């Protein structure tokens, strides 16, 4: 039995082919690096405009004023997508002021100092705030509003659903119990 010799063509691997293959390999690695850098820059630009909405309830006994504000602590604008109040198994697609006037007993007799309608499409700039409502200006209205809102907060059937987005169409909602934004997929 005879063994066949394998012929190696010495002329196949010349310097042109080695340089060409090396250039293609370098180009492929460069392409991979560019794609990775683009993904990093996209993520960075999304984070640089991330809104962070929170609900702030503040009271001032000395001024006899109770305020509910929607505040953007983020670095980009928040665009409201949905505002809904949930109460006793019902869903009310309305803002806080409208809900309180329609469904909270005794609230319609109070003097509101200020209120804003919060609806889909409203943009809250970075560091901005929208006053959902302010009530008070006299002791009777201030104390009555504290009681009404305290009763609502103590009611386990009361909640809200506020959803918003960034300019990159990333969606969040404010958690009704903690008030902390949760990213939606």
UniProtKB/TrEMBL annotation:
Lineage of this protein's species? Answer: Bacteria, Pseudomonadati, Bacteroidota, Flavobacteriia, Flavobacteriales
Name the domain of life this protein comes from: Bacteria
| Residue intervals passing through the bilayer | 18-36
Q: Which UniProt keywords apply?
A: Membrane, Transmembrane, Transmembrane helix
Q: What is this protein called?
A: Uncharacterized protein
